[in-house]
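Lab notebook, design round three. We kept the backbone fixed and only want residue identities now. Task for the bench partner: fill in a sequence for the structure below.
Input structure tokens:
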């Protein structure tokens, strides 16, 4: 009996030592992936966030902020240095931003939609849209801005040169966001119901 107890105790000691050695061993290094953080910046102030937009042509980052006590705005940062360049003001709020790099016109999916100059950050025009503007994107072949809404009409199409309303589309569903892989098609994400859009909208 005593020999069995000693053997059991020795086995427990060996097992415990093995576990301690495993715990003390350094964790394996994480595999390096293709992405890494190269810079960061703290964005403060009033207002919530929805979509941010990085314009590769102008190297600017547009961050719409929902209305606080001082009203909504769009904070504009240098995309490389992450330094604040300025602000599009006027109580616009908005969920997202789309930019036409040819005209340097930016559009905020507020209500009304605000058209602004991406160089001077000055407001150029207020555009009345039906529905509740939310997602927004630019299609470069037609030079149209697509403003998406959860309420009908679900899409308002704008001319990015002068901000005029080209037309509206009732999708019979509730789009959240969209994009273009021009010149082939326009794609959308859906919020509530399946739906589709013609690849080329006139």
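Proposed sequence:
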């Amino acid at each position: 009996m005593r020999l069995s107890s000693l053997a059991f105790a020795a086995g427990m000691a060996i097992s415990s030592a093995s576990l301690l050695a495993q715990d003390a061993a350094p964790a394996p290094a994480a595999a390096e992936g293709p992405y890494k953080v190269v810079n960061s910046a703290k964005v403060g102030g009033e207002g919530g966030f929805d979509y941010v937009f990085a314009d590769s042509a102008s190297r600017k980052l547009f961050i719409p902020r929902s209305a606080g006590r001082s009203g909504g705005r769009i904070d504009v940062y240098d995309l490389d240095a992450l330094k604040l360049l300025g602000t599009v003001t006027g109580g616009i709020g908005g969920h997202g931003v789309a930019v036409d790099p040819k005209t340097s016109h930016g559009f905020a999916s507020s209500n009304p939609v605000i058209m602004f100059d991406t160089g001077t950050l000055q407001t150029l025009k207020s555009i009345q849209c039906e529905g509740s503007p939310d997602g927004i994107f630019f299609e470069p072949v037609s030079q149209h801005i697509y403003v998406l809404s959860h309420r009908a009409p679900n899409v308002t199409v704008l001319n990015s040169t002068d901000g005029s309303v080209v037309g509206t589309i009732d999708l019979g569903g509730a789009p959240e966001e969209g994009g273009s892989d021009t010149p082939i098609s326009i794609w959308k994400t859906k919020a509530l119901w399946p739906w589709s859009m013609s690849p080329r909208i006139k």
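Keep this in mind before ordering anything: The longest strand covers residues 133-139.
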